[in-house]
Structure formats: C-alpha cells, structure tokens
Amino acid sequence: MEITTNSSIYTAITSLQTSSKAKSETDSFTISNNEKTQASDYTYDEYKKLSAKDINEIFPWDKMPHENEKAHKLQLLATLSPDETLNQVLFDQAKNADFNDISTRNFFDRTLKTAETEKALISGNEFAQSEEAKLGIIGMVQTLPSEERDKFLKEQGFDSFGEYVKYIKNAKITVDPLDKEIDGIVDAKTYFKFYETSKNYFKEYGKDLSEYSQKYLPNEFALFDNVKNEYEKRVSQNDSMLNQLTYNSKPNPLEINI
After folding, report:
1. What is the spatial distance between Cα 205 and Cα 5, in angstroms, rounded to a whole number?
2. Taking Cα atoms as reference points, which of 80, 28, 17, 36 lies closest to residue 54?
3. Are the CB atoms for 149 and 142 separated by under 8 Å?
C-alpha cells in the first residue's frame, strides 16, 4: 500500500458533508467578535457546530492556510460518524498534532479518505454511482511510483493505465452486503479492520514498497495503534460506568417495605 498525500483532501469530503441535514438555530455557531486565533483553540463540541463556511470565515485560506486546513480536518473528525467515542479519540489525537509531520498528515488524510469512501458506499446500492469515488480510486493508482503502478496494473490484468481508467469509469461495483449494514458514516470495526489489514500487508510486503512508504508507514501505524488503544480504553470505561449504573438502579430484593 503506497502512501499518497493531499493537503486539500478535506474539501472533497466537505462537499459530501454539505448535503447532510441543515443545522437548527440552536446548533448554529456565533463567530462574531471571535478572539480565537488557532484551530486548536476550539473544542470538540464547538467544531460539531461549525460549518465549512464558518471555518473559511474564521481562518481565511489566503491569510491562514495552515490553520484553515487543520480546522477543516478537526471539524470533519468531530462529525465523522455516529460513534462519538471514535470521533472524540481521533479529534483529541489531531487537535495538538503536528501536521507538518508526514506520517501524521498521512494518517489523518487516510482516515478522512476512508470516511469519504464509506459515505459513497452507503449513499446508494452501487458504489459506481459516485463519480467522485471513481476519481479517488483512479487518483490513488495514478500517484503510485511508476514501478509500483506498473506492477499493480499487471497484477490486475491491464496493459496500460489508460485501459485501467476506462475500466473504472465504466465499471459498476456492487456494494457488499456487509457494507450496506454499516450503521452510519464510519463504523469503528470497519475502520480498525482497514488499518489492521494495511499493517499486515506492510509486514509481509513492506520490503517491496517504495523507500517513502518504508520510511513513513511505521509511524503512521504507531499512531493508529494509539488511537485504537485509546478507543478500546474509553469504550471499556463507558461500559463499566453503564454496568455500575445499571447495577445501582436494580431494586434490592432484601428491602421489604411493610
């Protein structure tokens, strides 16, 4: 698996997000007289209320490109899925992260790209209906180093990249039944399985990948392990609290009111 970077990847996902239900007045976010100057100044709850338009107004791209990019990514992570625990863990990891670090940038870009794919998968019965998704598949192959791209095309039975592009544009890829059952935009189990599969692939074939991948993938996988461990920790804590609450609310059969 070859890493690709795309500093504007959030814009594609934002375009998908704008089709979601409109915010109510109680969900709106007031940006007048705003004194916060960094993307990390906003909380998780605040980002859930911010729109892409709000972010562009707070952090104009032409004046604050780095803050604009980070704010967009934080907003997308805060609204990534119905799984609040997953959203919060990813948001917390990203909030104070250094996006100048290539492994860090790649990790969050890949996470958001996964969200974009999942959105396309559950938006209809056929993945092929999404032109944006097709272009994403083509783009990932196109950005591979020439040797790896040629190897991939050969393994898939294509004589040229042009032949592959033509095939993808005309293909209809039916959504797998498991994907149809995903509850929401990004399912934690599916997300973690994606990275575990990638890690296993790297362990087996890493030596055959480019120097770039060999250099930056290990740190990306380490960040993934941190996210997964923290997610499992918080889920366990939530379950314990719920079990304790349930236990405390049970009536005591030894208490007899006379």
Report:
1. 21
2. 28
3. yes
Which percentage of the chain shows pLDDT scores above 70? 68
**Mean predicted lDDT score pLDDT of the chain:** 76
Among 167, 144, 39, 17, CA closest to 95? 39
The more confident residue out of 247 and 185 is 247
- Listing DSSP states for 26-75 in one string gives GG----TT----SGGGS-HHHHHH--HHHHHHHS-TTT-HHHHHHHHHHH
List, for residues 42-64, the tens digit of each pLDDT value.
999 999 999 888 999 999 988 99
Q: How many CA atoms lie within 13 A of 112 on its CB side?
A: 31
pLDDT tens for each residue of 226-254 = 999 999 999 999 888 877 776 666 665 65
Closest-CA residue to 108 (of 7, 185, 17): 7
Two tokens at 118? 């999942």
Question: How many Cβ atoms from other residues are within 10 Å of residue 112's Cβ?
Answer: 23
Contacts of 19 by beta carbon, 8 Å cutoff, 6+ apart: none
Helix axes 161-170, 146-155, angle to 10 degrees: 60
- What angle separates helix 84-95 from helix 65-78, to the nearest 10 degrees? 160
Q: What's the whole-model pTM score?
A: 0.61
Phi and psi, residue 174, nearest 5°: -70, 135
CA distance 219 to 5: 15
Distances (CA, A) of 243 to 87, 188, 249: 23, 22, 10
Q: Phi and psi of 142, rounded to 5°?
A: -65, -35
